[in-house]
Amino acid sequence: MLDELAHAGPEHLDPEFVANFDRKQGHPDPSDDIAALTTHGVDDTATVVDLGAGTGQFALAAAARFARVVAVDVAAPMVEHLRARAREVRATNVEVVQAGFLGYEHTGAPADAVHTRHALHQLPDFWKVLALRRIAATMRPGGVLRVRDLIYDLRPDEAAAAFDSWLATAGTDPATGYTADDYAEHIRTEHSTFRWLFESMLDETGFDIVDVEFTGPFFGAYTCLRR
Ligand SMILES: C[S@@+](CC[C@H](N)C(=O)[O-])C[C@H]1O[C@@H](n2cnc3c(N)ncnc32)[C@H](O)[C@@H]1O
């Protein structure tokens, strides 16, 4: 079995990095992600699982909308941070679980939806496929999978020039954004894959893609229905 902690990104295991995480990544608006679920029939009685939940930016917003939210993350400092935030905002319908994509054991009613943002790329492709298969197994047929991730919408020959342009647009202050060094480290050490590979993984693991949107060649948002 893959050691998911060893692949979690060492920064996510560092309490100081976690304490500053929201400042670095900003506060992406989760309303499109919640709308992607409700548009496809996920209602206020739903069980929603957020995998690689981080500081809980999606999970806590989802808790205001859905009956049961399970926020799962492999990193202890993220889990502690999220538990404290959930207590602070009295999100009593959020369960925080320390587990990885490959280790999470879902209990209770099958999930009506699974959300994961900027986390699946931590797994190498073989394990990503197994993780997607496990996700499908936690969901009811017709359930919604919403995935946002760094995914490369490129042909192989375009990669070098595209990465050069990406690095050129990066921020310069690592406390308040992602820098060229952060992006270069991502490309070198993490497992973002090509769009055309990722879409075939989704199909192979039992998902129909109903909507896909790319912001530039690096960031994809998928809405999928479990067959
Ligand atoms: C870049 S953060 C994104 C957090 C959150 N989804 C967000 O968008 O704000 C990636 C998160 O994935 C978690 N992670 C990394 N590998 C994981 C794994 N195998 N299973 C579950 N979570 C994982 C990290 O601990 C971290 O919290």
Tell me what you see in this structure.
α5 links the parallel β2 (68-73) and β3. The chain has a single domain, classed as Vaccinia Virus protein VP39 (Rossmann fold). The radius of gyration is 17 Å and the shape is globular. The model has no long low-confidence stretch (mean pLDDT 97). α7 packs antiparallel against α8 (180-189). It is built from nine helices and seven strands. It has 227 residues and is α/β, with parallel strands linked by helices. The protein has a seven-stranded mixed beta sheet with strand order 3-2-1-4-5-7-6, sandwiched between helices. S-adenosylmethionine (SAM) binds next to loops.
At the first level of CATH, what is the class? Alpha Beta
Shape: globular
Q: Find the CATH topology.
A: Rossmann fold
Mean pLDDT: 97
Q: What's the total count of β strands?
A: 7
Number of helices: 9
Topology:
Elements: H1 15-19, H2 21-25, H3 31-38, E1 47-51, H4 57-63, E2 68-73, H5 76-88, E3 94-98, E4 111-117, H6 125-138, E5 139-150, H7 159-168, H8 180-189, H9 195-204, E6 207-215, E7 219-226
Parallel strand pairs: 1-2, 1-4, 2-3, 4-5
Antiparallel strand pairs: 5-7, 6-7
Helix pairs in contact: 7-8
